[in-house]
């Protein structure tokens, strides 16, 4: 059973965004990211993978998780944008004291870090398919740090001070180091199996927008 957080970097090897927000529930996290409450639905990781792999002209019959005879369900998922080839699908879960969000390939959360942190604090880590790495930290509605570790010449927010408590030694990939930091700093453990189950999920039309 994979636990901790570092397995995320292996599981989503084509790129991902992982976000933590303290003291809120998963559905609120998705709403802070811009989801309408009525458009949040619980989906498994396999269902999300099917939606992401579905070709533009792929029929609904290709979706094994979807009961096409359940017209009410099809209508709800259509209205929520799940069946119209969304660019971004975000799943959210919970660990004691925190809500988390996982995006496969996309980076929707990074542009909403300030909103996520209203009245609390939020962390995010992003790795692109091209190997770019960015980490971020926000508190009480203000982004205090967002930058690529080890690349100060690229600029960013709070590059000088960095994320409080996080130091990248260069001995491992920046995203792995940041996940390790979150593990050790807050004792956060997420079992791989738990992320495969039904979790609140939202569909968004555009990455980062």
Estimated structural class: alpha+beta
- Listing every helix as H and every strand as E from the N terminus to the C terminus, the arrangement reads HEHEHHEEHEEEEHHE
> Radius of gyration in whole Å, from Cα?
17 Å
Sheet with most strands: strand arrangement: 2-9-3-4-1-5-6-7-8
- Describe the global form: globular
**Helix proportion range:** 10-25%
Q: Give the distance, in angstroms, between the N- and C-terminal Cα atoms.
A: 35 Å
**Spans with pLDDT under 50 lasting ≥5 residues?**
none
Query: What does the main sheet amount to?
Result: 9 strands, antiparallel
Helix count equals 7
Instruction: Name the average pLDDT.
Output: 91
Approximately what portion of the residues adopt beta-strand conformation? 25-35%
β-strand number: 9
Can you give a write-up of this model?
The protein is of the alpha+beta class and 209 residues long. It is built from seven helices and nine strands, in the order H-E-H-E-H-H-E-E-H-E-E-E-E-H-H-E. It has a nine-stranded antiparallel beta sheet with strand order 2-9-3-4-1-5-6-7-8, sandwiched between helices. It starts with 6 loop residues before the first helix and ends in a 5-residue tail after the last strand.
